[in-house]
Amino acid sequence: MNRKFFISISMVIFLFIQYLQSSEEHSTQYGSSLPHTNNTKIVGGIALFVNGEPITIYAIEKAQKLLHTDKLRATDFLVMEKLRESEIKRLKIEVSDSQIDAQITQIAQQNGMNIEQFYAAIMKEGMSLVEYRTKLKEQILVQELMRKILFSSNVGQEDELRKYYNEHLHEFVIPKKIDIIKFVSNDKQSLENFIKQGIQSVLPNNIVKAEETLEISSLPNQIADVLLVTAENNFSQILEAEDNNYVSFYIKHKLLTEQVSFDKAKNYIAQKIIANNQEKILNDYFERVRSRSKIVFVR
After folding, report:
1. Residue 182 — pLDDT band, cuts 50, 70, 90?
2. What is the C-alpha to C-alpha distance for residues 274 and 251, in angstroms, rounded to an integer?
3. C-alpha dihedral sign at 184, 185, 186, 192
4. For residue 149, which of 295, 279, 10 has the smallest C-alpha distance?
5. HSE-up (13 A, CA, CB side) for residue 119
6. Which residue has the higher pLDDT, 240 or 1?
């Protein structure tokens, strides 16, 4: 299935896996708690309980294969999953059908499809709509949990935000208009090669260019963000466009610049600081959750 058919949860999984890879101490602790057993073929046999919720031997073996890891790390991963589920319940995080519908609409649009085409693509991949909505709901729940954890952290207090703002004033000077050259092609590799060769290189026949002056306020947020972070005399990253095309913007001039006030910038700054510290925030949070949880090993 096209990886875009699901909202991005790879970051969350990556953080959990990174957590496992950096948790030798916990793996050692689990090793001392797990007695050796030859009864590993018992499908559904319970290996341990996390706050009363069972984890089976079969689930651990399945996680070992999925994560390409050993028994101790697979166990740790499943424990973290249980802790995550318990936190979703404790914090009363819920996802409505309308939220799922809105997310599906957005994903369909990102894939250049209407809802009917998108549903047809899902079923063509061998997944029912009920299964897809269930998996999507699980992903949204996890994202909401991570968002809640990150934004309830102590990172990004007012003094820290203002310090960042004063030390990075250049980041908060934005243009109202941008002179650009737009390059469009249905061949991504050709566009990548052209960008590597530079703006003065010969334009291939399968790339179309057009010069425009764009008003930032009239652009979709995704494109506006890309243009704002791209320096003058540079190409933007390549974006997917309509009709299976690809587009890159060459920034000529940024016009009518203005300084964004601290009050308008502080939410962006908070998000940036949190993003830079998110792994530590999540690790510290689940360390605290683990320490107050009851984990009982059976075999």
Report:
1. very high
2. 29
3. negative
4. 279
5. 8
6. 240
Q: How far is CA 47 from CA 35, 36, 43, 57, 262, in A?
A: 10, 11, 11, 5, 53
Q: Other CB atoms closer than 10 Å to residue 252's CB: what's the count?
A: 16
Q: Rounded to 5 degrees, what angle do the CA atoms 268, 269, 273 make? A: 120
Instruction: Look at the alpha carbons of 20, 21, 23, 27 in this order and tell me if their dihedral is positive or negative.
Output: positive
Rounded-to-integer distance, Cα 189 and Cα 194, Å: 9
Single-letter residue type at 207 = I
If you search the block for the tokens 């949190």, which residue do you land on?
A: 274
Please give the order of strands across the beta sheet that includes 46-50.
Answer: 53-56, 46-50, 295-297
Q: Residue 201 gets which letter from DSSP?
A: S
Q: pTM score > 0.85 for this model?
A: no
Query: How much is the average pLDDT of 152-156?
Result: 66
Q: Which helix (H) or strand (E) holds 123?
A: helix 115-124
pLDDT at res. 154: 63
Residue with structure tokens 């996802």?
95
Per residue in 38-51, pLDDT (tens digit) is 444 444 589 899 99
Residue whose pair of structure tokens reads 């949990």 in the numeric block: 145
3-state secondary structure of 105: helix
d(CA 94, CA 234): 43
First to last CA, the chain: 38
**Whole-number Å distance between alpha carbons of 252 and 249:** 9
Contact 109, 80 (CB under 8 A): no
